[in-house]
Specification:
Elements (H helix, E strand, L loop, with lengths): L1 H4 L3 E4 L5 E2 L2 E2 L6 E8 L3 E9 L11 E6 L6 H4 L14 E7 L4 E7 L3 H4 L10 E7 L2 E9 L18 E7 L11 E2 L3 E2 L4 E3 L10
Parallel strand pairs: 4-14
Antiparallel strand pairs: 1-4, 2-3, 4-5, 5-10, 6-7, 6-11, 7-8, 9-10, 11-12, 11-13
């Protein structure tokens, strides 16, 4: 019932990853995002179409991207080009992999450390996914303060919170910068605050 009342953002995804002078195609072109939060944590619900379930390498994966420092937004540009060079800001990534069906977090210069399983795990950081009829549905639970140093402390009710999504389709061999990316959106527009603490939501 909570999800039925929560706002939903349907985000288009795109890629500009070049190899040998050509843009490598990506297969996932849209994702739906909802978010519920209380005074302690935020729960994201993501769903996207994927023709094949890939739980072994290369795997299906998703990252939720946040900017630790809003002052760097002008240097960051779009998600599609990140990281363009060594001078771009780190991102706060919450990364889910179908292989582990678990979530890691890191404030990192690229996604590679998380793909290698070197992010931070924490009991308060959870992921639960189901694949049915060609569609993934994923729930990601994250403390508002995150679980690593320099993590973005989320408060969707206060000011701008740039938020984006990256998706990897393992069946297409997507890894690293070869991925589908949303635009930046303001989390405040899609996150709904709960009147009282939620103790779990069903997929």
């Amino acid at each position: 019932a909570q999800w039925q009342a929560a706002p939903r953002a349907d985000l288009r995804l795109s890629s500009t990853f070049y190899q040998e002078g050509k843009v490598l195609p990506t297969r996932v072109n849209a994702i739906s995002v909802q978010a519920l939060y209380n005074e302690k944590e935020i729960l994201f619900r993501l769903s996207w179409h994927d023709r094949v379930e890939n739980r072994q390498s290369p795997v299906d994966a998703v990252a939720l991207a946040l900017l630790p420092d809003l002052r760097t937004k002008w240097r960051t540009g779009s998600l599609r080009g990140w990281p363009a060079n060594s001078e771009v800001p780190n991102f706060d990534l919450t990364y889910w992999s179908a292989e582990r069906n678990s979530v890691q977090q890191g404030v990192v210069p690229s996604v590679e450390p998380l793909e290698a399983g070197k992010g931070a795990a924490d009991p308060r950081l959870t992921g639960e996914a189901a694949y049915q009829d060609g569609e993934w549905t994923l729930l990601v639970r994250r403390p508002l303060a995150g679980v690593v140093d320099q993590a973005v402390r989320l408060d969707p009710s206060q000011g701008e919170v740039p938020f984006g999504v990256m998706v990897w389709e393992g069946g297409n061999g997507e890894r690293g910068r070869h991925r589908a990316n949303s635009r930046w959106v303001d989390l405040a527009f899609i996150a709904k605050k709960l009147a009282e603490q939620s103790h779990g939501e069903d997929l």
